[in-house]
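Justification of resources, computational component.

The compute hours requested in this renewal are based largely on the per-chain cost of generating structure records like the one below. Each record pairs the submitted sequence with a full C-alpha cell output. That output is archived, and it is also reused by downstream analysis tasks.
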Amino acid sequence: MPIFLADFTKQNNMTENEMTGLLLKLADLGVTGIKIFYSGGGDSGDIDDIIYTTTKEASFDNIMNLTSYGEDLLNLQTLDDELSDKIKDFANEKILNGIEDWWNNDGGYGNAY
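The structure output for this chain reads:
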C-alpha cells in the first residue's frame, strides 16, 4: 500500500519540510533505498540495523534482498550517524509503535523498506 507524503506526515506530526529534508539528505548522500531491521522479545523491541544501497535505479526487490551481514554491508550509521538516528527514531515512534504489541512474549521481528 503506497504511503502518500502529505497524509503520512500529517498522521505522524512531521512537517512535509522535515520529511522532504530527510529524503533529500539521503539522496545527497547517494542513498537510493534503505532497509530497517527490527526485532524484540519479552517486554522490549528495537531497531537492529539500517542498511542502505546506492545502486542506481534500485528496485524494490534489490532493497528487499539487502542483508544485515557480510563484507559489503552498507550501514547507514557508518555513513551518517545523525541521519541514522533520525530515521531510527522515526521508525520506532511512528511505525513500530503503531503495531500493537509486536515485541511481547514470543516477540517478533521484521523489516521495513
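Residues 81-95 form the longest helix (15 residues). The CA atoms of residues 29 and 42 lie 37 Å apart.
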